[in-house]
Protein 1
Amino acid sequence: MNERYDVVIAGAGPAGGQCARDLATRGYDVVVLETEPEDEFPRQSNKSTAGTFPSMMASFGIPDDVVMQYTDSVVLESPTDHYVREQPGAVLEFADFKRFLVEDSRENGAEYRFGARVTGPIMENGEIVGVQYNGDEEVYGDIVIDATGPSAPIAKELGVSDLQRENHAIGIEYELEGIDIDRPGFADLHDAMMLRLDHDIAPGGYSWIFHTGEDTAKVGLCYIQNGHHQRYAKDSYTIDDYLEHWLETDPRFADAERIEGKQHRGSAHIQMPGKMHADRFMAIGDTVPTVDPLWGEGINKCMQSGRMAAAAADSCLKHGDLEPSAENLEVYETLWHREVAPNMRSRLLMTKLLYLAGNERYDQLMADLNRLDDETLAKANKGNVRAIMRLLEPGDLPMLATFAKRELDLDLPF
């Protein structure tokens, strides 16, 4: 095995795999270090609900054979109402998807070392020059990229990671069969991805049903254990208790059974990113973090961040005399804020306001969504202030005052 490469990537998730694909396609010598053994990959890291959209599939050349089910609509539910929007999507078999990224990048020349647990950076004269893994093994590169997610062993050592405990979201999901997909009184979930806002099921978060064909679906929930969660949470309830409660009380699951071996747990941070790069170094994917704060979509965002990092690396490496200094890699952060998450801050504020609302307001939100036109909703989803204002009611004033005082640090007179 070589010990020196153009780029060393830690982590073979969507961000690391896509970054390796792009760099290998450009002809660079790339090695990816992945903690899991190859014969098990990705058993431990098979943690994503893997709902995505055709734009991601087309942009990154993802084949149909990693798709469990193509969907036609997105459904939002509240405790007593729902809203349906026609929106093509795809529910991926996440393990197959991750293996595709590995094999495709390998075909283009990328090297993978499985069973390689990264422990930290190798430093010379204050700059990162390589990576230590499995204790005493070493590999060197002109540029190092951390795509390990929240563990972030390299980014934390370099002082780049700004992941905060109070912004840590946790999730759990089962794959079920025997679900009543078109239950009277509920929306028809055939070929649909459904997100439910209901504090009795996911206090301070949301739950989901993603149809995967016939009477099967991915079913789960997530939340951040912060003030929004604690306001509505039941004493001593764990995330497993909430999912069990939903399965026991929702009539759609009366005859449902878990599919053996199909239980997933995951986590991500919902917050603004801090610093994302340093001399010879970039952090991508959920190391940053990158997940969309409003609806939790992470695959497309992670893939985009990997692509932006590859573009930044290429901008230095293709010129033999251009050092990959922090100044020259600054283009990565510029591209991230422009292409990956151009409205991250406004969407984060929308998320905090959304989870401050109670169940009755969620029911009203469904009515509001059903009366508004698609253009207004699209603008609101992108953080347009005028469009968001059209979703507000006079009765929201106390909630807005609480939100402003808590999140915006405004001293309001009411």
Protein 2
Amino acid sequence: MSSGDVLDDVAALVAERNRIDALLTRRVRAAELSQAPERDGQKSMRPWLRGHCRLSAAAAARLVGNGQVLDHLPALAEAHDAGLVSAEQVAVAAVALTPERLAAAAEHGVDLAEVDAVLTQVAIDHPHADFVAAVRHHLTRLDPDGPEPDPTEGRRLMLARHADGTLSLRGELDAVGGEKLQAALESFVQADRPAGDERTRAQRLGDALVQLCDTALAAGSLPVLRTVKPHVAVVIDLEDLADPATGREAGRMGFGAVISAARARWLACDGTVSRVVFGPDGAPLDLGREQRLADRHLRRAVELRDGGCVFTGCDAPTWWAEVHHLVHWLDGGKTNLANSALLCERHHTKVHHGFRVERQPDGRWRTWRPDGTEIRTGPPLLQPAA
């Protein structure tokens, strides 16, 4: 193919992707408005898309948010349908369409149809940066004087975990909140300046943030999380812990990161080591020296076995979940591991209103709707429903 043919193909494929994104966004919006996710025990399309379509939290949120944009900006929606506007551009427009900003537009007499026309023209004819600037200009019109905002409205922190367990941070703080963080971090930075230190400023701040967390966790004054004090947890096989080799990807941490056996041994130097014996079905059989299964010990066993909410399609982590009796204790169910399941608050309520979860002999969990049909998370359909 000639260079021109290749470039034409690229442009055509981008336009086709835009059209498919528009169709998908409209279907997601229709499902959201009809409360379709309730069929599978989910509150909204965001968790359904994560659990059933394997989307990231950010991708699911953007799809749902874009559907709301198409409702309010029909011209932009039409351009998206035609492949002239991308899903990314629609997502940029979403920041101007929060309930608060829609109310401000109505209060200031802003004609959304005019805004829609202008933004659509810029999106089609100008570079992406110009479109971002046009949306920002619209927001400035809604609040030209800039009254003193609630500081909590300007605070946000996003944590993105990568495949290797590392964590990226991105966020914003108001002036006072930022001052508090800087004051806390700077105290560690200035107190830890050994001779010959070649760390960059960014590295020293990163170390200070970790030290700040160490200090807060060690103080023991943080709020209790699901009956357990916040702590750093690592699950590792005894053989890997005892083996002096590095043992990469041998330990699994409480929030999902995977670390080497060497790093786990380093953490164990000033931590508590608890023995948990697993049976052939992957269920904990023994929790070390405890004489009986008290609440916190049972919870630890259920967390180790289940790893999060067991309701099909749910990705809620252990710290959002509650321990559920498969057979209610009023009906003779025992408070033990075999009769327990980890469920997030929403799905704990669902299984008390007709839904049912059951652990199979091979350790897998399955979920049934009140009508007896099973909830499955198979591969996405090749052809969209008519």
Protein 3
Amino acid sequence: MKPLFQTLVASVQAALQTGEHFTCGFSAEQSQFVRFNHAKVRQAGEVSQASAQLRLIRDGRQAEQQVTLSGDPAIDQQRLSQALQQLRQTLPLLAVDPYLRLDDSAWHKLDQQDQPLPALDQLLALLEEQTSDLDLVGIYAAGPIYRGFASSFGAFGWHQANSFNFDWSLFHSNGQALKANYAGQHWNDQAFTTRLRQAREQLGFLGRPAITLEPGSYRAYLAPAAMDEIAGMLCWGGFSAQALATGNSALQRLYNGDAQLHPQVTLSEQISGSLSPAFSDEGSPRLDVPLIAHGKALQRLVSARSAAEFGLLANGADSYESPCALSLAPGSLPSAQILERLGTGLYISNLWYLNYSDLPAARMTGLTRFATLWVENGEIQGPVNTMRFDDSLYSLLGSQLEDLTQEREMILSTSTYGQRSTGSSHLPGALVKGLTLTL
């Protein structure tokens, strides 16, 4: 993939006319997909795709076009040449872009994470051995993901990350279900077996009579997967410079200094060591960005356009200004003591269908759904019927937060909309003194 990208970049560079500049983004994957139902393979296939995002700039105007690539250098050079001609014809028809800001530095970023992935036949044999007695439904996706960027200013970035993501659910005969996931770059049979054993244990509890709770505030433990849903909501403009500047951020009060979170809460965009490329889709190097430290707002994610529009300093954020490698610092609660410390309350494995019920107050609502368990005196009693929660982030990670776990889980995005995602989050679980259930 890299030689193909370099060839295409060279061909565009050679075709430029005086006064023109270009940027070229590259996105590709070579993925295996396997779909399971009743713990058996129902569908298997491979996806190999690549595309280029060509942008032409001249006299303060810009236009871009996405080109699907074939993998044949001759054909793809011709496609980019045609795209360049179309962009050249389009530019004079456009108005000058007042917020066009280009990084004209000749930066270089190379990151090749090419750890070997498990052979599919060995993985399927392990799954057959470990799950043949379970009603398992899920999808396994694996393979290399490629990202590239180059510009006429001499910038060049290349990123390859091999990863796997096995996302599955286990169903009890009574209709109750739980979700689980095992993802990363280094497949470990023992780690997967441990994850599966934990899911089996929870599945056993789902066979007990379901418990119905009255609306109210309950002590609760939110597992990393549930925290990932909350973190995902914050990524909807929470840290965006554009959203904050226009009053559309859920964290407006935090960044204005009118509210704060618990001192244990330290959040950052942790690009280093993640699966995400160390350069943005706009063509800027990306660095780690401290977002919240000890409950107080620090930096925001600033794209080049927002920097130009609002007089800020860009820090390599993508155009949508959303974290792609969000990291929450751990706390002091050992995972082995979660039930003991919880005492009596809710053990919430997942949250579902989240949305904002009051954006300015960072108030979220959603459902408990999968494997929410009622605990009394540190002992699991049984599953809880689906309940809706409605609570503010300033409560869950503020006044009501008691502790975060010492152990964190690296959660890779399962999104395959258009292509496999490189997004991730690194999160602990959270013990809260009160979570509000509404119905």
